[in-house]
């Protein structure tokens, strides 16, 4: 076997858009319209071409950055987004900057001084996620 094997979860940094519909507030990826399932459920990656996700020849899978200073700055930068830590499981493609996994769920949402605290608390409750109270990238890395 030449593929690396991870027996447990992988954790990475990412951010989400907040989407509001008649059922409430949801997390969604910055480039995809799929809503992340609530209540601690796993988002399972799919590929429009029909194969299992992720595979090396494709960009499919749930994306996350490795916890590093540059990625912590990157996920905290967008003003209209919610940053946090994702827990991923299943097959994963690990790369220099991050990974793509078969399934993931929000593990923690970042509550920064500029964030809407009420929104972060509502989303953390909805997604059964922890709240990481951080003042910036260094504290987000320390929390990880």
Characterization of this structure:
By secondary structure, this protein is α+β, with helices and mostly antiparallel strands. The protein contains three helices and seven strands; from the N terminus they run ββββαββαβα. Helix 2 (117-127) links the parallel strand 6 and strand 7. The longest helix is centred in the last third of the chain and has 11 residues, at 117-127. It is globular.
Describe this protein with a few key phrases.
single chain; 144 residues; alpha+beta; seven-stranded mixed β-sheet; 38% strand; globular
Taking Cα atoms only, what radius of gyration do you get, to the nearest Å? 15 Å
- How many β-strand stretches? 7
Average of the residue pLDDT scores: 93
> Treating each run of at least 4 consecutive H or I residues as one helix, how many helices?
3
* Strand proportion: 35-45%
Largest sheet: 7 strands, mixed
End-to-end CA span: 30 Å
Topology:
Elements: E1 10-21, E2 24-28, E3 43-44, E4 62-65, H1 69-76, E5 82-94, E6 98-111, H2 117-127, E7 130-133, H3 137-143
Parallel strand pairs: 6-7
Antiparallel strand pairs: 1-2, 1-5, 3-6, 4-6, 5-6
Summarize the model shown.
The protein has 144 residues and is an alpha+beta fold. 18% of the residues lie in helices and 38% in strands.
């Amino acid at each position: 076997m030449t593929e690396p094997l991870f027996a447990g979860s992988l954790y990475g940094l990412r951010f989400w858009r907040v989407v509001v519909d008649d059922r409430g507030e949801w997390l969604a990826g910055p480039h995809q319209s799929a809503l992340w399932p609530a209540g601690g459920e796993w988002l399972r990656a799919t590929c429009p071409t029909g194969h299992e996700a992720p595979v090396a020849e494709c960009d499919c899978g749930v994306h996350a950055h490795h916890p590093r200073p540059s990625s912590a700055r990157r996920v905290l930068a967008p003003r209209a987004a919610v940053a946090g830590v994702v827990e991923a499981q299943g097959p994963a493609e690990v790369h220099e900057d991050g990974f793509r996994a078969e399934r993931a769920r929000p593990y923690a949402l970042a509550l920064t001084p500029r964030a809407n605290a009420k929104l972060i608390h509502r989303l953390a409750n909805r997604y059964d996620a922890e709240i990481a109270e951080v003042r910036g990238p260094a504290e987000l890395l320390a929390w990880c």
